[in-house]
Each structure stands twice: as structure tokens, then as C-alpha cells.
Amino acid sequence: MKLPIIDTHCDLLSYLAKVPDARADHAEDIACALPLLQQGNVKMQVLAIYTDVFPGSMDIASIQGQKFKQLLEEFKEELCHANVEFLQRINEEDRISVVAAIENAAGLASEDAPIQAAVENLDVLIKETGRIAYISLTHHTENRFGGGNYTEGIGLKEDGKKLLDYMSGKKIAIDLSHTSDLLAEGILNHIDLEHLDIPVIASHSNFRGVWDHKRNLSDEFAQEIMQRGGIIGVNFLRAFLDNDRPKRILDHILYAFERGFGDQICFGADFFYTKDFPDKSRHPFYFPIVENASKYPSLLENLAEKLSKEQLEKLAYQNAQSFFLKTWA
């Protein structure tokens, strides 16, 4: 089943920035390489600018911003900027549209940089990439903005509040995919208390009700995203689906429709460069059913017995399309 696909998260830019001789069309290296995206009929791909919490985080983010620009220049026949006009005619498009996002605000301001650096660097990245789709304040660990998903008892910090205040009205979503529960709660409370204009999403998260993992969303936070008109991108990583059940992704998707999140669920595959990953217990990172971006049509075929055509269209592209059209209008 070949529907247009919108995917809300991959780490192609990180691969291009850190791996010697990396190329976006090397399908043997990374599961979101351009030929695989084309085979999967991906029409819009969010490219995360990912950094860890370390002194060089701002430089790495800057390099990835440059890689985004170079990517569009090198593959101008295959790629274009994602925008409202493209989304409105997504069914007629041959190219893949791309948009940048920020995974871990440590890339905007390292731990010892002045907070003003965060807003200045955000403006630079917006100018360089054309648009930032969303920002996640943290990754797995704690930083100056708040607590990551593997931290306990660390919520939203003062610098996190300042960055949220600056984001308000800029058509950039806040991403809950890597927050601690306490940080997610703090973000939502601060948005409400200050009446901020910030959409809320989970760009690449599954459901804790299916697989009890700290990286997955509780139903409570999924409900918050639903009530705020956001989207939830189902993550393809084995560790966040179920370590041992190859078709568990189907259960996460069906769970979304069963629990009333049918207008939120989309794809957030989280494909990244895995060859240098030191923890061998994580290999293979992806089950064969979703091992690379070419698998979207066959995944939809697997779901066709359980979901209607209308539901499959929502999952494949319409939910994400509606969200970004509304956000970017």
C-alpha cells in the first residue's frame, strides 16, 4: 500500500556530521538514506539536529545546521524545503520535503554558555535551515533546561522556562519525547500558566500502556497532547517497542486508535547511524518489519486487516499534515 508518508524524526544530520565520508544516499550506512526514503514513498522527513550534553554541543549543532543546507544543495533534484504549499499538494509531489528540528537544547546553549546564546543560536538555525519544526529540551540525561527521560526527580528548570517563553508564537512545537515525566509536567504547566502559544507533540514516542519503558508516553501525557491538538510519532526502535516481539509495533499503532489517539498517531521512526554504537545488546536496533524507511508500504499492508483506509491515511500522512498546516499557517 503506497500512501504518502510523513515521518517526524530521524538522525540523518548527525550521521552526516560525525561519520567520515558519510553520504545521504548511502543506504548501506543508515536506514533513512535517501534511496530508502524514496522507496518508502516518504514525502516529508523531519531531520533532527541532535547533540549530547558536552562542551562542544553548540559546535556540533552548528555543523548539522550547515549539513542541512548542504543536503538541499547537493540533492536539489530529490529534496526541497517542507512548507505549507508542499503539504497542500503532497499527493502530487515527487520530491521529498525536509525540515529541521532540535533534539536536545544543549545544542543551543551548552552548560556554561549564557542563556542568551540559546535564543541567538535558535535564530541562527532558523535562518540557516528555513524553519525549526520542534525542540526537545533534553535527551536522555539532565541538562540546564530540565530532566531527560532517564532522570528521576528533575523537572523544568529556569533556563527551560526562558527558552519556552522565547519559543511562544514562533510556530515551533515543544517535543515531549525525551522528557522526564516531571519535565513534561513542568512544560505543560508553564505553557498554561504563562498562556504561551506553543504546540505540544511527541515526535518519536510509543505507549507505556503497551511497553512499560521510560521513553514511552503514559496515557496521561498522550491525552494532554491530544487535547492540545498535537501529534505522536510511533518510534521504530526495538528497545521502545518490545525487545522480543517482532510485530509489536502493530500493537502500539492499534493501541493509539483504541485509546482515542487516532487523530494524533503518525510515524516518528527514529532511524540513526548504529554501526558505532557500543552497547551490543541493542543490536539489532530495528526488527525486520521496520528495519529501514523502505518498509512503510509493507507496514501499512500489515495493518490493512485491522484499520480502515481512512485510518491508514491518517497514520501515514494526514495527521502530521494537518498538524503542520495548522502550526505553520
Question: Can you tell me about this structure?
Answer:
- The protein has twelve helices and nine strands.
- The longest helix has 20 residues, at 309-328.
- The two termini are 30 Å apart.
- The chain has one domain: Metal-dependent hydrolases (TIM Barrel, Alpha-Beta Barrel), CATH 3.20.20.
- The strands form two sheets. Strands 1, 2, 3, 4, 5, 6 and 7 form a seven-stranded parallel β-sheet that branches. Strands 8-9 form a two-stranded parallel sheet.
- Helix content is 38%, strand content 13%.
- The relative contact order is 0.15.
- The protein has 329 residues and is an alpha/beta fold.
Structural topology:
Layout: E1 5-10, H1 12-18, H2 34-39, E2 42-50, H3 57-74, E3 79-81, H4 84-88, E4 96-103, H5 116-129, E5 132-136, H6 158-167, E6 173-175, H7 181-194, E7 200-201, H8 219-227, E8 232-234, H9 238-241, H10 248-258, E9 265-267, H11 296-303, H12 309-328
Parallel strand pairs: 1-2, 2-4, 3-4, 4-5, 5-6, 6-7, 8-9
